[in-house]
Amino acid sequence: MSLSEFDLIEHYFKRTCTTENSGVAIGIGDDCAILDLPDGYQLAVSTDSLVCDVHFFADVDPYRLGYKALAVNLSDLAAMGATPKWVSLAITLPEMDELWLAEFSRGFFELANKFNVVLVGGDTTKGPLSITVSVKGIVPRGLALPRNNAQADELVCVSASLGEGALGLACKLNEHTVKNRQYFIDALELTEPRVELGILLRNLASSCIDISDGLTQDLRHILKSSNCSAKLELDKLPLSDLMREEIQTGSINEQSAYQYALTGGDDYELLFTISAANLAQLNKLIEKSEVTIPAISVIGFVTPLQQPLIQLFKQNEAVSFSLQGWDHFKGQI
Ligand SMILES: [Mg+2]
């Protein structure tokens, strides 16, 4: 039995809205969704496409693809301090594969339900496999976290640990044989968007971005738009225990681990600038939080504008590192 586009939407993507106060006046199935914005809030909108053979492998587990397509979009909302509310989804598929769609929608809705995000519309088209997700969130007026407000002497901070997604990709490409292979592949494919942390940062951080293209590249976006520079301490870059284990057992060398942490991308951790006083307050809020929020590492500080934009130090000595990140139109820059 082959399903029509309408049947397909109905079957796999029309879910009863269970969220109270979802703000959905008219949801999926009409020409447009009609959404209510609470008084005193602004709308945050972000769209990301995932294209087969560019962002993911053709044989990727569809459950994980559905999960990640939403996760990377939620990460952008987190970077603005927005609370996720609604999402629309466009899928281009080479053929109607019901098993694939069932798994894709299972992954997508598992994460959507976790953050009470309601699917309010979408489109399906026949063609080369690609996924486009557009998320909408809300943020109290004036409290969105910009990129262009970093100030000299503030601390540069990052959540959780870095480089794991990049090592996961390297494992998939068989560039490394590591002990904890599946852990790193999970870090790549089952990204955890830092939504709760973004919300805590609203009143505390001066600038914020999520690390999708690599720490140095994404930090540059903050520094360029804020007219500042930064000094980073290599030894303060957070590497997970399992990453350190791989270094200790010789699966990867330390240089590679730092390269992944600095330039690998696919971390989806939050990178932000904050005053020392506000960081102390943030850490108290994290301690009190009912949901688990990852630890914050101070990796350096903001300086007045100077060249190079990012200076790296290792035990107080300046070190040079190739500060590349990934740019889709230029390749490695
Ligand atoms: Mg982003």
Describe this structure in words.
By secondary structure, this protein is an alpha+beta fold. It has two domains: 5-140, PurM-like, N-terminal domain (60s Ribosomal Protein L30, Chain: A); 155-332, Phosphoribosyl-aminoimidazole Synthetase, Chain A, domain 2, CATH 3.90.650. The chain is 34% helix and 27% strand. It has ten helices and 15 strands. The chain has helices at 5-13, 62-80, 98-114, 164-172, 181-189, 195-201, 215-226, 241-248, 254-264, 276-288; strands at residues 24-26, 34-35, 41-51, 83-93, 118-126, 130-140, 155-159, 205-210, 228-233, 270-274, 296-304, 310-314, 317-319, 326-327, 331-332. The strands form four sheets. The protein has a seven-stranded mixed β-sheet with strand order 8-10-7-11-9-12-13, with helices on both faces. It has a four-stranded mixed β-sheet with strand order 3-6-4-5. A hairpin with a 2-residue loop joins β12 and β13 (317-319). α2 runs parallel beside α3 (98-114), α2 (62-80) runs parallel beside α6 and α4 (164-172) packs across α5. The longest helix is centred in the N-terminal third of the chain and has 19 residues, at 62-80. The radius of gyration is 20 Å and the shape is globular. The model has no long low-confidence stretch (mean pLDDT 91). The chain binds magnesium ion. Magnesium ion (MG) is lined by residues 76, 79, 210, 212.
Summarize the structure.
With 333 residues, this protein is α+β, with helices and mostly antiparallel strands.
Q: What is the rounded Rg?
A: 20 Å
Q: What string, H for helix and E for strand, traces the elements in order?
A: HEEEHEHEEEHHHEHEHHEHEEEEE
The molecules bound to the chains, other than polymers, are: magnesium ion
Count of folded domains: 2
Poorly predicted regions are: none
Do you know the CATH architecture of the largest domain? Alpha-Beta Complex
Measured by DSSP, the beta-strand proportion falls in 25-35%
Largest sheet: 7 strands, mixed
Count of strand segments:
15
The CATH topology of the largest domain corresponds to Phosphoribosyl-aminoimidazole Synthetase, Chain A, domain 2
Name of the top-level CATH class of the largest domain: Alpha Beta
Helix content: 25-40%
CATH superfamily of the largest domain: PurM-like C-terminal domain
